[in-house]
User: Fold these one by one.
Assistant:
Number 1:
Amino acid sequence: MPSTFTTNTGIEKPGNGEQSGSWGTTVNTNMDILDRTVNGVVSLTLTGTSSTITTANGATSDGQYRVLLLGGVLSATHTITVDPADAQKIYYVKNSTGQTVTFTQGSGAVTADVPNDGFGVVFADGSDECVNLTDSSSISSLVLGGTAVTTTGAELNVIDGNTSATSTTVTASDSIVFNDNGVMKQVSMADINTYIQSQVSSPTVNNSTITITAGDVLTGGGTFTTNGGATSITLNHQDVSSQGSVNGSGNTFIQDVTLDSYGHVTGLGTATAASGGGAPKAVYGGRTPGSLNITNVLNGDILVAWLADLATTNASEFIQIWDQSGWVGFNPSSTMLASATTVLRWENTTGSTKAVFVRGNISSTGGVGRILTFHYGS
C-alpha cells in the first residue's frame, strides 16, 4: 500500500509493509516538517506583484513554516497564493516590504491584507477564504490592574483625534479630562469656572478699562465686569482723510479718486472737458474733392465737419477725418478716424495731439462743393 500525506502539512504516512529499512529517512523528514509547523520562522524576499507559498507532500517547503518574515522592496501590492487550495493554514506574518501584502487561496472569494510595517495572523480555510484574524478579532471586556475598562471604541476614537464635533449645551455638571499633576481626572465645568474667577483680584478686570487702538483710524474705550452687565464701549472713527473738497465748475469734473488701504479719500484729480459748443477756437473751409489740413488737435478737442453743398444727381456724398500719420498723397494708408454721409462730429480721445485731414465728396462725377469744419477745444 503506497504512502499517503496529511492535508495541511504534507507529513508522509507510509503504507503497511512499505519502506522496509528506510523508515528513518521518512521519519526524519517528517520531524523537520513538524519543527517548521510548530515553531519554524522563514524570511521571504518578495519581488514583483505575486508569488505562491507551497506546502509540499513528504518534503520540507516554505509553506510549512509558522512565522513568515516578509521582506524586499515592493512598488505595488503583492499577492501570495496559499497552495494547495485544500490545506488549512495559520501563518504569523510580519510585513516589511514597503507595500500591502494580500493572501489568497482557491477562488479567492475572501482575501486577507497585511499592511506594510504591520503584523497579521492569517488563516486559510482550505477552500477559498483567507482572513487576517487581527482585523477580525473582538474583545468584549478588558481588565487592567484589576480595573475593568468600560470605554467604547467610539470614545477611544474621540481621544485619538476624531474631528467630528457634536453640538452640546455645556452645563456646570459637565466635565472635561484634565491632567492633575500627572493624574488624569474628569473635572467639572463648575470647578473650572471657580478657578478662573479666583484668578481675578477684584470683580472687575484690568481696572475695568479697555482701550482699543488701530493706528489713526479707531480709538475707543469702555468698561465691563466678569459677572456683571457691561456698561459701554465706544469706538470713534478718526478723520484721516487729507483731501479737501473739490467743486467743479464749467467743464471741470472729478476724474480720479485716490483711496488709502482703509478706504479713506486721500486725493481727487480733476479734468476739463471740451464743451463742443459755444464759439470754436478755429474754423476751416475748403472745396471738394480735396482735404483740409488741421494740425494741433489736442486730446479732448472736438471737430464738427459737414458738406455745405450737396449733389443733386449721382449722389455719393461723404465726409471723413483721417489721421495724417501714414498719409501718402490721395492714397491714404493711415487710419480713418470718423466717417459720415454729410455731417460728422469727432472727439480726440487718443490721449495725444493729432494732425488730421478732413476729406469730402459730393458727386461720383467729381462735382465741386464746400467743406466746413469747426474746431472746439480749450
Number 2:
Amino acid sequence: MSSMTRIGVELPEDIAKRLEAAWPDVSRGALEAVALEGYRDGALSRDQVGRLLGLSLWDTEAFLKERQAYLAYTEYDLDQDRRDLDRIAPQLSSSPTPLR
C-alpha cells in the first residue's frame, strides 16, 4: 500500500461552524469535495476517487452520479469506440469460445 500524506486546512471559525452544521463529519466532507473536484478537473481517475474515499467500484459510481460528475465522454470518443468495435467485431465472431 502506498504511503499517505496528511493535509491540514485552516478555516475561519464561522465557516467551520457552518460546515459542521451542514456535514456530520467535516473532514470527510472536505475529502469528498477534493475527490469530486479532482475528478471533474481530470486530475483524478474514477479508481483514484474510490481509493481516496475507500469506496468500491459501484459505490464510487454512485458517489459520482449523485453529485452529477459524469464521465467526460465526447462524441469523438463514441465515434472512436464504434470504429474500434467495428475493427475487432469480426475477430470476436470467429472466436471459438463464446463471450459472456
